[in-house]
Amino acid sequence: MILIRLAWQSLISRRLTVGLTVFAIALSVALFLGVEKVRTGAKASFADTISGTDLIVGARSGGVQLLLYSVFRVGNATNNVTWESYQDIAARDEVDWIVPMSLGDSHRGFRVLGTTSDFFERYEYRAGRSLVYSAGARFDDLFDAVLGADVAAQLGYQLGKEIVVAHGIASFTEHDDKPFRVSGILAKTGTPVDRTVFVSLKAIEAIHVDWTGGGRSRDTVSADEVRQMELAPKAVTAALIGVKSKLQIFGLQRWINEYPQEPLLAILPGVALGELWDIISVAETALVGVSAMVVVTALLGMAAMIFSGLNERRREMAILRAVGARPWTILILLMTEAALMSSAAVLLGLGLLYTGMFVARSYVDAAFGLYLEISAPAGRELVVLGAVVAAGTLVSLAPALRAYRMSLTDGMQVKV
Predict the structure, then answer these.
(1) pLDDT tens digits along 88-141
(2) Is the distance from CB of 242 to CB of 122 less than 8 angstroms?
(3) How far is 56 from 239, CA to CA, in rounded Å?
(4) Residue 201 in contact with residue 100, Cβ under 8 Å?
(5) pLDDT, tens digit, 9 for 90 and up, residues 262-318
(6) Beta-carbon count within 10 A of 267 CB
(7) Nearest to 359 by CA among 34, 6, 14, 8
(8) Could you tell me if 267 and 54 are in contact, meaning their C-beta atoms sit under 8 angstroms apart?
C-alpha cells in the first residue's frame, strides 16, 4: 500500500507528461475497442442483411454467387428461372410466401429490380426489421418506381421525379419511351436495398415488350398501348421463399435442387452469408492488426517516457536508497507506476469509447445502417483490457531494471 501511495504521488508530481502519456494510451485503447465494436457490429449487420427468408432460389450456380446477385446486386445470374418453374415452386404445400425478383437493367449505375409489392412486406433485415418509407408509397401505377435511400440521396430525386431505365448494366441504350415516376423512397437500411431502384415485375416486361435481342424492334409499342397487354413474365432471376414450418426447409431445398425440368439451386441465406463473410474476413483481420499496433506503439511511448525520465529522477532514486529502500523496491515502484498509468488509460479509454458511441450511434445507424450496440465489455474485450494493463507493466520492466542497477553514489553525483 505504501508503494502504491508513493507511486501515485510520484505520478502526480509529473502530471503533465504522465497525463499526455495516459491520454495517448487511452486513445489507442478507445481506437482498438472501437474497431472491435465496429467489427462485431459490421459482422452482425452483414449477417442480418436479409432475415426472415428461409430460402433463395435461382439458376444452378454457386451459393455465394446466387447470394451476391440476388441480395447484394453484384454480378449476374448464369441463367434465369422460367415462370413455369417459379409457379411450380409457389404451388408447393411447404411454401408460405414467395417473392419473385428480376434483375438486368440499371439506372445511372444503380441496379433495377423488378418484383411485386410483396417484397416490401416480406423483406426483413437486422433480425426482423421491415422496410419503411421515408416518403411516398409502393407501386400504384405500372410505371411507378420505388427508390432506395442512397439512390434518392445521391441523385437528388424527389417524389414525382421522372426517371428512365437503361437496358442492361452500364448501357447507353435506354427505355426512354417508357419513363417511370418515383412513387416512394425507402428509409435507410444499411443493406443493398438502399442502392436499388424497384419497379414492378410487369413493368420489366412492359419496357422489353418491343425489344428483340439487344435493341428495340421497328414495331415499337407505346406506353399507353403496353398498359392494355397481359404482360405475363416469361422468367425471373431469383425468388425469396418463406416456408410454413422450419422443419420443411431442408425437404423443400432438396426438392428444388433436384427439380427435373431445369437446373435450379436453393440456398439458406444464413449459410451463404457465413461463407461470404469468411471470404472477406481478411480485411477484418487487417483492421484489428492495425489497431493492435496502435496500442503497442502507445505502450512503447510510455516505456520511452519512463526511460527518458530516469535521468531526471536519479537523485530521487538515490534518496530512496539512502533512506533504506532496497534495489528491488525501486524496481517495483517503477512497475507500479506503469501499472497505475495503464489502468488509468484503460478506464479513460473506456470512457472515451462509450461517450463517442453514445454521441455517434444514431448518426452511424442513419448514415451507414451500422448498428453499434452499447453494452458492457464482453469476454474478449475484458481480455484485451487486461492485456493492455499487463503489457504496460511489462514494458516498464526494462527501465525499472536500469533504475534497479543505479548505484547510490551514481545518483548522488553532480555531473557538470
Answers:
(1) 999 999 999 999 999 989 999 899 999 999 999 999 988 788 999 999 998 889
(2) yes
(3) 6
(4) yes
(5) 999 999 998 988 888 777 777 767 777 877 787 788 777 777 777 666 666 666 666
(6) 25
(7) 34
(8) no
Q: What local confidence, expressed as pLDDT, does residue 408 receive?
A: 46
At residue 413, does pLDDT exceed 60?
no
Give me 145's grid cell.
Answer: 418506381
Inter-CA distances, 135 with 154, 159, 262, Å: 16, 7, 41
Scan for cell 414467395, then name that residue: 98
* Number of helical (H) and strand (E) elements in the chain, helices listed first: 15, 17
Residue 290 CB: number of other CB atoms within 10 A? 12
- Name residue 165's amino acid: V
Q: How large is the average pLDDT for residues 387-412?
A: 68
Per-residue model confidence (pLDDT) at position 47: 78
Name the pairing type of β-strands 180-186 and 144-147: parallel
Give me the helices (H) in 144-189, please: 149-155
Q: How far apart are CA 310 and CA 413, in angstroms?
A: 15
Residue 204 carries which DSSP code?
Answer: H
Question: Which segments of 246-305 are extended strands (E)?
Answer: 264-267
Find the distance separating the first CA and the last CA of the chain, reported in whole Å. 38
Instruction: Give the Å distances, CA to CA, from 57 to 34, 53, 166, 299.
Output: 38, 11, 26, 52
- In the chain, the percentage of residues whose pLDDT exceeds 90 is 36
pLDDT band at 170 (very low <50, low <70, confident <90, very high): low
pLDDT in tens, 327-378: 667 777 777 888 888 899 889 989 998 898 888 877 777 666 667 777 778 7
Q: How large is the C-alpha radius of gyration of the chain? A: 32
Question: Distance (Å, rounded) from C-alpha 255 to C-alpha 240?
Answer: 16
**pLDDT greater at residue 327 or residue 388:** 388
Integer angstrom CA distances of residue 392 from 26, 365, 383, 402: 12, 35, 14, 17
Angle at 238 between CA 267 and CA 203, to 5 degrees: 160
What CA–CA distance (Å, rounded) separates 370 from 272? 20
